[in-house]
């Protein structure tokens, strides 16, 4: 069976520029919360799985970690290697971490990438292999209950003055083709995202020898500008989380 191309390498330049902006979910929400969850990582061996251009890898290094970054996107790894760090970067898929020895990593992190990975079972098995006995695996995903590509959306009830989240499908696993250049009519770039219900991750982690030890749901930091729907929009952002963080440890 042909393996899906889920690499973001084709939009490496755009993605690198995007993460350099000040008001992104990464900078305002995800990076700070991940650092809080990780705690003191000084002298810890940390694997940044699907590291992209190494933005979070650099933060991990500044926090004192001994960092290794891997990603399938050759173009992204090239950007990461051009930065002045001591981080070792490798081009590889998440299910093939052959360059990392057994039981050598204190922590494995994976930021907003599991949902773009096809071989999750094999990936979890590799994570289990490289983690130390007391190691931790922390990953962040788009909330699987509320962010389902092409099957979820915001809507507004004019009568009730309520913004709500419409969910058309949840339990069905799906593979969705994602347009990574929605504003372009030529030179289109595409990737594939996979929707799986929450139980998919819990069951597969357990089968891989990892047990969920923590789960957090993160709400948006953004606020609407002045307007008739501001109150409803701001309230819905505080009630419906867009991101989820899961920590798993050895069984």
Total beta-strand segments: 11
Instruction: Write down the secondary-structure element order.
Output: HHEHEHEEHEEEEEHEHE
Distance between the termini: 32 Å
Q: What integer is the average pLDDT?
A: 91
> In percent, how helical is the residue content?
25-40%
The helix count comes to: 7
Secondary-structure-based class equals: alpha/beta
What overall form do the CA principal axes indicate?
globular
CATH architectural arrangement: 3-Layer(aba) Sandwich
User: What would CATH call the class?
Assistant: Alpha Beta
The radius of gyration over CA amounts to 19 Å
Within CATH, the superfamily carries the name: Vaccinia Virus protein VP39
The biggest sheet, with number of strands, parallel, antiparallel or mixed sense and barrel status, is: 7 strands, mixed
How is the CATH topology named? Answer: Rossmann fold
| DSSP strand content | 25-35%
Give the topology, please.
Blueprint: H1 12-19, H2 25-38, E1 45-49, H3 55-62, E2 66-71, H4 74-81, E3 88-91, E4 105-111, H5 120-130, E5 131-142, E6 152-157, E7 162-167, E8 174-179, E9 190-195, H6 198-207, E10 210-218, H7 230-239, E11 243-250
Parallel strand pairs: 1-2, 1-4, 2-3, 4-5
Antiparallel strand pairs: 5-11, 6-7, 8-9, 10-11
Q: What do you see in this structure?
A:
The chain has helices spanning 12-19, 25-38, 55-62, 74-81, 120-130, 198-207, 230-239, and strands at residues 45-49, 66-71, 88-91, 105-111, 131-142, 152-157, 162-167, 174-179, 190-195, 210-218, 243-250. The chain is of the alpha/beta class and 251 residues long. The chain has a single domain (9-145, 194-227, 242-250), classed as Rossmann fold (3-Layer(aba) Sandwich). The two termini are 32 Å apart. The protein has a seven-stranded mixed β-sheet, with helices on both faces. It has a two-stranded antiparallel ribbon with strand order 6-7. The longest helix is centred in the first third of the chain and has 14 residues, at 25-38.
């Amino acid at each position: 069976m042909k393996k899906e191309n889920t690499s973001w390498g084709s939009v490496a330049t755009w993605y690198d520029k995007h993460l350099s902006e000040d008001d992104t979910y990464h900078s305002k929400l995800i990076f700070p919360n991940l650092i809080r969850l990780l705690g003191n990582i000084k002298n810890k061996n940390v694997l940044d799985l699907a590291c992209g251009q190494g933005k979070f890898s650099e933060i991990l290094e500044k926090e004192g970690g001994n960092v290794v970054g891997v990603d399938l996107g050759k173009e992204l790894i090239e950007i990461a290697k051009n930065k002045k760090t001591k981080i070792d970067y490798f081009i590889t898929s998440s299910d093939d971490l052959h360059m990392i020895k057994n039981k050598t990593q204190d922590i494995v992190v994976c930021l907003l990438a599991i949902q773009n990975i096809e071989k999750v079972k094999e990936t979890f098995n590799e994570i289990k292999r490289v983690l130390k006995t007391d190691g931790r695996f922390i990953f962040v995903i788009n909330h699987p209950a509320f962010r389902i590509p092409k099957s979820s959306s915001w809507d507004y009830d004019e009568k009730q003055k309520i913004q709500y989240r419409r969910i058309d499908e949840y339990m069905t696993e799906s593979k969705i083709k994602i347009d990574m250049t929605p504003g372009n009519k030529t030179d289109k770039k595409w990737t594939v995202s996979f929707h799986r219900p929450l139980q998919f991750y819990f069951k597969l982690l357990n089968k891989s020898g990892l047990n969920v030890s923590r789960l957090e749901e993160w709400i948006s930091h953004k606020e609407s500008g002045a307007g008739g729907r501001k109150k409803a929009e701001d309230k819905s952002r505080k009630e419906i989380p867009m991101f989820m963080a899961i920590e798993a440890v050895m069984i």
